[in-house]
Amino acid sequence: MFELSQMAAGRASVSDEGELLSGGPQSLLHVHDAVAQRDFEPVLPPIPDDALEDEEDSVKIVSLVKTKEPLGATVKRDTSTGAIVVARIMRGGAADKSGLIHEGDELKEVNGVPLEHRKPKEILPLLARSKDEVRFKIIPAYSREEMSTTKQKLFVRALFDYDPNQDPSIPCKDAALTFKRGDVLQIVSMEDDTWWQACHLEDSNGGAGLIPSKELHERRVALQRPKALFQPQRVKPPGDLYTLLKSPCVSLPAGLRRSFRLGRKSSWAKEAARFRRWSAGVHSSICPPTYIEVIPYHREPKDRHRVVILVGPSGVGVNELKRRLLISDPDRYGVTVPHTTREKKRQESEGVDYHFVSVHMFEELILSHRLIEYGSYRGHYYGTSLDSVHRVMAEGKVCLLDVHPSKIKRVYTSEFKPYVVFVKPPRIEELRLTRRRAKFNLCCLMDTGDAIFLSQEADFEDMIDLAENMERQYGHLFDKVIVNGDIASAFRELRSDLEKIQEARVQWVPTEWSFSSPTKARRSCSHLPSWI
Ligand SMILES: Nc1ncnc2c1ncn2[C@@H]1O[C@H](COP(=O)(O)OP(=O)(O)OP(=O)(O)O)[C@@H](O)[C@H]1O
Question: Does the C-beta of 320 come closer than 6 Å to ligand 1?
């Protein structure tokens, strides 16, 4: 490791300052004497003979003892002045720990060798040549006070995967941080607009690494997006569909039987998928998911469980996963009972299958904003109320909610603390294989007794397209993505993830939940305060 041995240029060393601050009145007198005798000063290396007169105030000589650990700094040439400056100090690295070299500092000399007219790559051999000690002559960029005010604790959850080995523009691969979507990172520096520095939460002792800044990632995604526009066979104007989508009853009721949703799928859902493809391609103004600011949440045993929201394109397997969770642990998981205005069937029970209400009562629920989502089917209303979620939570169960992602915002509050799982279809080959094996493509029986035949290939493509659009539009709200290829593996992964969440000592939740309740989740990056 490089260790600090001395610093110079007429300043007290860090440890001297510490002593000055820690004493009482006696110490103060002692310090006064010491200052009067000027014996507080560290032993300085001789001021270089060639130091310019006007540099004396600002030049600093820093000596570091050399060990095997790298210095943890990068240098670059300032294009306007030609000077060699410290481009980056890796947090937790040897240079950072020394506290004596900072970003923006100008390097004048290394071991007495002037750096004027040298290229950054010529500096490494100079460092390598030095044996026990490396001595830098530096013109500091900032005072130490300025530096300390810029440091804050900021935690974010990454909303995309990052592998520096796949990134040709990373300034230094070895200095980069690999992360996966969902990882919580501590941001330690945002001074650079393009490359931030962060460390993994579980690795807070380790050094920081470079990660793409929010702006950089957004720019990159925006550059990739035009590809979507060049798929002529898939881009289709919406026609009459816009009118349909503007209708107040387009959202999917939660807790409804699968057959209802499948029936819906064969009618407007396919067109909706095409519309969304078109609108996403043409009006791609939505910010891509980057990082969301999070804070720790320490769940107390008396606290209610977080609501688990399962979302995904129709037919992907949301209901199947929900069903398996309920069967696997009925004491732990519960589902809401929906409201409907249709007649009760003979075998059905009030409050078990549905809450059977009048149209007037249903409209009251709509007007009082007590419904998370609602829709109409064959002339009857169906909907899921906030109260029904409360009821499941009050039983001490984890409420499994299955809503369209546009409705997540209705429960995106500290009251429900939703944990959102996005169920995603696998690649088309696996989707074909697994669903054909399960004979899903052959025929689906509706609760009316009608059999509908699905045009399998188009459905698979629509499902994948819908999933992509959902992820693009609502990805910032997803805590977990489960790819539902093999149903048994997807279920195992989901169950173990939910158990981990419930048992975790600390959970990371959006910062905005700490400000108000209920809170509105906003999609636009520019408006969401915790979206950085
Ligand atoms: N991984 C899988 N492999 C094979 N079949 C699956 C898989 N996941 C789900 N299925 C089957 O696909 C069909 C549709 O699943 P499911 O009803 O859960 O979809 P959904 O996402 O709830 O869609 P909808 O809301 O339209 O009902 C069901 O018959 C289910 O058993």
Answer: yes
